[in-house]
Amino acid sequence: MHPITSYLRTLIRLKKSTLCVSADITSAEEMLALAYAVGPHIVVFKTHADILSGWDPDPDHGTGAQLAAIARQFRFLIFEDRKFADIGSTAQLQYAGGDYRILEWAHIVNAHVISGPDMVRALKETANTWKMPTEDTFKAVNLGKSALKRKGVAVKAPTHTREELADLEALPTPKRGLLLLAQMSSAGNLLNAEYTSACLAIARQHQDFVMGFIALEPLNSDPGDEFLVMTPGCSLPPDQSLDDSEFVPGTEDALGQQYVTPQDLMLKGCDIIIVGRGICNAAEPSMKADQYRKVAWEAYQKRLGLTEE
């Protein structure tokens, strides 16, 4: 099992959460505030760095470093939804360079395999060059907390015990992982069964870097497969919504995104549900995130035949 997958499963157990919040917003300051608001309830926080205005590229105290500090405080992983899809040398530059320097702060990234398996190898080579910064890099980074306070939202400390947090002090080695886009939730997408099979074959060739898939169902079929599946297009039905900020499951939005309930995704065997606008557009994102967490966790427990302690 990939070390980050193992670490993520520990997060799932200790935080009783299978939730990834997608920061479907367009301001870096609001993104940091959202991370603080939902941090206690999630195991993964998904970003789109290139849609954010006000991104600070400073490597030590900029937006990426601030988000990394928030993730360390609340114990969640950062997933930059970059969807690499170019030749290997270009993908390497996109991963490590430019203003975003994704490699420095995102534990997880994803990629299409349309350009072939060598792009996966290229990203892995770049990831293997990364070294964890010293603790001093993160000591004074509290701008995400300040952004939340400026919005008038109270900042709550993590709810875990000291003993549980101690178990999560060290990030896994290697410390970076890749998800392959094997299936998509948008109507009319071209990721057919043959493409999905190709993704699985490539993943098996790079199990030291590929930790799983963006997919609509589990893809493990061989005895040695231990890939994780994260699934987008998740929405609560209207009768369960706290504030009607969701799209109706079983329908599409105006641009073809299709939605499924968290219960259905968990019972189908998915590992992590991805929720974006249903939480980002909520009047109280923290409260809504906790609702999704509880609903998905109950279904997850039911799937495993477990009961709450």
UniProtKB/TrEMBL annotation:
UniProt keyword terms in alphabetical order: Decarboxylase, Lyase, Pyrimidine biosynthesis
Catalytic residues as annotated in Swiss-Prot or TrEMBL: D81, K83, D86
GO CC aspect terms: cytosol
Record domain Orotidine 5'-phosphate decarboxylase: where: 18-292
Biological pathway: Pyrimidine metabolism; UMP biosynthesis via de novo pathway; UMP from orotate: step 2/2
Domain of life according to the entry: Eukaryota
A GO biological-process term: 'de novo' pyrimidine nucleobase biosynthetic process
Chain sites annotated for binding substrate: D24, K46, S185, Q257, G276, R277
Family annotation (Pfam families): OMPdecase
SMART domains registered for this protein in UniProt: OMPdecase (SM00934)
Top EC class for this record: lyase
UniProt similarity note: Belongs to the OMP decarboxylase family.
Protein name: Orotidine 5'-phosphate decarboxylase
Organism: Lachnellula suecica
